[in-house]
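ping. complex inputs:
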Amino acid sequence: MTSTARNATAEFLGTAFLLMAVVGSGMMAEALAGGNVALALLAVILATGTVLVALILTFQPISGAHFNPAVTVALATQREIRWSAVPVYIVAQCGGALAGVALAHAMFGKAVVQVSTHPRSGATQLLSEFIATFGLLMVVWGCARSRPGAVPFAVGAYITAACWFTASTCFANPAVTLARLFTNTFTGIRPADALGFVAMQFAGALAATALFRWLSGAPLVKDGEK
Amino acid sequence: MTSTARNATAEFLGTAFLLMAVVGSGMMAEALAGGNVALALLAVILATGTVLVALILTFQPISGAHFNPAVTVALATQREIRWSAVPVYIVAQCGGALAGVALAHAMFGKAVVQVSTHPRSGATQLLSEFIATFGLLMVVWGCARSRPGAVPFAVGAYITAACWFTASTCFANPAVTLARLFTNTFTGIRPADALGFVAMQFAGALAATALFRWLSGAPLVKDGEK
Amino acid sequence: MTSTARNATAEFLGTAFLLMAVVGSGMMAEALAGGNVALALLAVILATGTVLVALILTFQPISGAHFNPAVTVALATQREIRWSAVPVYIVAQCGGALAGVALAHAMFGKAVVQVSTHPRSGATQLLSEFIATFGLLMVVWGCARSRPGAVPFAVGAYITAACWFTASTCFANPAVTLARLFTNTFTGIRPADALGFVAMQFAGALAATALFRWLSGAPLVKDGEK
Amino acid sequence: MTSTARNATAEFLGTAFLLMAVVGSGMMAEALAGGNVALALLAVILATGTVLVALILTFQPISGAHFNPAVTVALATQREIRWSAVPVYIVAQCGGALAGVALAHAMFGKAVVQVSTHPRSGATQLLSEFIATFGLLMVVWGCARSRPGAVPFAVGAYITAACWFTASTCFANPAVTLARLFTNTFTGIRPADALGFVAMQFAGALAATALFRWLSGAPLVKDGEK
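pong. complex structure:
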């Protein structure tokens, strides 16, 4: 099979399991936590952080394990991947994310297609998403350059922390944001609030990329595409 | 001693400790959690995920650390292990699993032999087991090819997540399912529901194996047995 | 850009995200934990431990990832970094820490500048800070000499433990202490109590450094600066 | 300084911090958990597991990071360390353990010397300690032979699990057992119950060692002392 199909399959599967982890654990935790939101959030965060470690270890050798359009675009600006590959990545990520939400609903016996009514608006939420995604790309660029084998652990650890320390519980991913529109459960986001989230996610990702390019005084990768 | 006896001993011990972790932590957590099921499940999941990291690190150099008939069969289809070794592995895994449950009961002063009355039925449970085991083999194949040293961490992290995000709390293992018939505690499963679980586990494992074979465009391992 | 500017930027960013993790997770956890202080502390500790793993993996290749004036001074006594670089490190760390607290407040819609009224006084707190920072440098010196790649995991694991086992919940860092003066939330510290904390942190760091120098019978690093 | 003094210092410090983690986190958790024993145990287990990762990473290159007379004796039977070094190791471990308990009490403002009244008796407790220590040595021997760099993570993960799945909450260490006689807090053990614990710990350690020697068909280490 072609490299493009392999990459698309890897990004689709990885993002689907990421969304199953977020949305599925949210339904499980909300059902069991007896109203204690901190305990429910702990469950979602543990599931999200650990699934990222597993998924990046699994798919990094195939597609790079982005699972995130903001990561894909940021890497493309530094020629880590070809611009021509970006649309395939983003379509695969968004398709996988939507499939993951639908499968999570099916596993828990809920309506497969739902629309969220969970409001997540205001300047504090937007600032949170900018910082969350800035930090994610900071970690990616810091590790990818000198120790790519540590990326799965660094990203899993960072997201675990950022879910606790950002007021938005760290979406930090446009494909995740899109898919969470379509779950009216603990982890959903109202459609009206999604565009702002996505804009701040790209802004944060690009700001961190610019900063690391300046820090390194050169393009972040060798001038030739892998 | 022969390689066969070494492998059987390793699979027996590993699966026994895996079941002690699942069933023992379930009894401990249920006794202490004061009725908060989310907290009890958190304890079981932490014990399960961490014991898998330890056990795979311990036994991977000896037997490959499968502890799971679905993994053993999936690996055999790609000649990772000889078909002639499969029955020994499966008998050792099931024997270890049953011994682990009995020892867990003994440690907590319960009747050593019990039969579960815990219902886990319906299409949502079956779908959950298919997805859980599909994901497990996806992680195994993704890591085993390019970084076998990461398998203990990837599998431990994946199972930690999947226990939260699947509606069945991720059995994903026919030997585990068989053994959990024989505990009438927090982590048990009613005999009537076990066969469906096992069928979906093998189906999920084989589906992920087929997908990864297609992804790699070739048998997943070199044509010669290790 | 110069090495000094790179190092200062790395220390600023790393310490800022460390404080966002501590203070932000404290606000999140206090809001959600329904008065259960153990659960709130669990959230803060998980965020702190995991963010340290991610941040040290990210910035260790650039600045060494100290994020802590007591670590910087201890390393300087053994010529791990030049004394002439120490003021830049400390200013960057303190500036980053203050920025991190301000951003955490902004993310949660609180007054950006606050002063803590949280008392943390007495001999037990001072002893706790001495032990916490002694242990931190013990871990740093033990790992830095023989396996620097393990430092991110060792420090993250140590701080996770020390937050639970010291009566002061392990500040162990003068920049963190300074910044936590300026948050009147779960994780703050009253100005009157900060100086004692900082003194004990430097004392603990230097005591551990002296012990490890004695243990190794020689300066802890080769006699030439990196 | 001599190798003996270095080893003794490392074992003393490591075991002292291990006991501070166990006993200190027990006092912290009991004070904050509002009577929820599962949550308190979770805190103690997190502190114990993570401190072991940090301490073994720190001291493994110096003394081997045993922190445990049962480990030291088991290694001596296979010539991993000289029998002549065993008494020094055990004295350092017991001394460190007692110092750790005293310091934990001092940090929390309690009487430095206490005697436990916490009963932990009966056949189920003894069986639990046999299994807990058998498993610990199983992990040590499994990893030490083929991947010593994984020992810190394997032991930390194993102990995290075993604290949940054994009815005794996994002491698995004679020095820890001795020291926990002297704390009348959450993690203590009544003097009358300690001897049985210690006997089962040595029995479990030696049984696992014998099994692994049989598995490997030869002494577990090369016939020459390191």
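The first helix of chain B runs from residue 3 to 32.
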